[in-house]
Amino acid sequence: MALLISKPASVTKGTPQVISFDRDEVAALISDEYFQDPLNWSKVTFYYKDATGVQKIYCHMDLVSDSGSFKVSVRALTNTWQLFKVFVEDFDGGLHVIRRADLGSSDDLVVSA
Q1: According to the model, what pLDDT value does residue 4 have?
Q2: Could you tell me which residues come within 8 angstroms of residue 44 by beta carbon, excluding any fewer than 6 positions away?
Q3: Bridge partner residues of 49 (DSSP)
């Protein structure tokens, strides 16, 4: 699997960090022909979870810059979050979910503090 996202080597708790994604790589993970076309996307959200599944981070991506802000509080219980799902929404409320099993395995899918 090619690079899905680019991110800082580590994040600082309490400080927003920019994470970007490659829309072609995201589109390649989608089986639905309609949602494979990024022109049909209105919103892309990356959903991260910590190892316990208790803390969840939603990173809403800007489709102009293909980037979003990843921020956890200084009180976060953990130092590692893994990309769990990617939500791709269209302009009419349609939703395609790319699940963890379809994302493969890569260090690029993990964000650490």
Answers
A1: 65
A2: 21, 23, 26, 60, 61, 63, 86, 87, 88, 89
A3: 56, 82
